[in-house]
Amino acid sequence: MFENVKIAPPDPILGLTETFKADPNPDKINLSVGVYQDSTGKTPVLDTVKEAERRILEQENTKGYLAMTGEPVYCAKVQELLFGEGHEIIDSKRAATAQCPGGTGALRVAGDYLNIVHPGAKIWLSNPTWANHNTIFEAAGVKCEKYAYRDPETNGLDFDAMYESIKKIPKGDVILLHGCCHNPTGIDPTLEQWSKIGDLLAELGVLPLVDFAYQGLATGIEEDRAGLLELVKKVKQMLVCSSFSKNFGLYRERTGALTVVADDANQANTVMSQVKQRIRYNYSNPPSHGGQIVAVVLSDSELKAKWLEEVAEIRDRINEMRHLFVKTLKEKGVQQDFSSIIKQRGMFSFSGLTKDQVDRLRDEYSIYIVGSGRINVAGMTPDNMDRLCEAIKSVL
Ligand code: LMR
């Protein structure tokens, strides 16, 4: 069976991490995978997560299966974070949530659902988008198309082009929108633009699928849901894939969710019954640990307040690094304008570095950046900044 199997190409993001790990250079810098590092270069376990784990260890009394949709308290907390406590969507029960193995797992379940229940519906992805979006939906049998997003001239949003290309999406198709901290560009629509997008989608009959993996990393947990809330004012039905990898640092615990927003509670239950089947035929029911952590922290007002401070620390450090990066490049006399990086939000920015420059940074300086030129700003530290900027200067 296996003699003729050809080696698969490395993953553009996780494959790079494997190469990084194998690099013996003690001064290597990893700006590839979207994982937060503190100012000492470590990916910490949050204090609130440690405290929740202590409580879980003491109180957990079974390892029985979770429901196909996971832990109900976790699912309720997911909805509160997405829409805010007491939102009409929650009170009317027209949202239904399934706990999923990470944001990636949630996207795959959404893809499987679309393929089986809405065969022929295509999904439209921003150009550019996260390198794994295309592959997840193609693997689920959903055809992918592109809509315009980034203006290469300004390294900002080309909203007119975006709007014009969304206009061409046929009724019954799906559009994937990044809830905040667009991956890979860090460029988000303004509130006014979200409102226009919502009006247009309602008029066209296109279903939004919001990938919301970075809530809290732009401006704040509440502030970052503004785009989503604008959208739900305009459209009644949508899918939301969310994740606690980044804002809880629960990367390896695979803690995500798929939320269906429907016209009413009955319709939400019907759609969720189909989602449940996709889950059952895939991984049966989700892993528990990460979801328990989130449920414990968000159910305890003191822990929740501490967690909000921890998220603010992560966010502030990333923003400081954005400023320091641009300042250091300027001080080193780099002519190319990197100032747009200060305006971008979340972990990522598009550096504008070419594939050749990215390759040289890796081969000559052990600095790892995704081939598209996407930089994980959260991998920069005050200690590695000088070496990083010096190396960038030399390859430009
Ligand atoms: C990223 O974009 O680097 C993260 O979302 C991690 C991943 O799985 O690719």
- The computed structural class is alpha/beta
Q: So what's the CATH class of the largest domain?
A: Alpha Beta
CATH topology of the largest domain: Aspartate Aminotransferase, domain 2
Largest sheet: 7 strands, mixed
Can you give the helix content as a percent range? 40-55%
Strand content: 5-15%
CATH architectural group of the largest domain: 3-Layer(aba) Sandwich
Order of helices and strands: HEHHHEHEHEEEHEHEHEEHHHHEHEEH
Strand order of the largest sheet: 2-10-9-8-7-3-4
Q: Kindly, what is the distance between the CA atoms of the first and last residues, rounded to a whole number of angstroms? A: 48 Å
What's the number of structural domains? 2
User: What's the mean pLDDT score?
Assistant: 97
Which stretches of 5+ consecutive residues score pLDDT under 50? Answer: none
Task: Tell me the overall shape.
Answer: globular
Number of helices: 15
Return Rg in Å: 21 Å
Number of strands: 13
Any ligands, ions or cofactors bound here, and which?
(2S)-2-hydroxybutanedioic acid
CATH homology superfamily name of the largest domain = Type I PLP-dependent aspartate aminotransferase-like (Major domain)
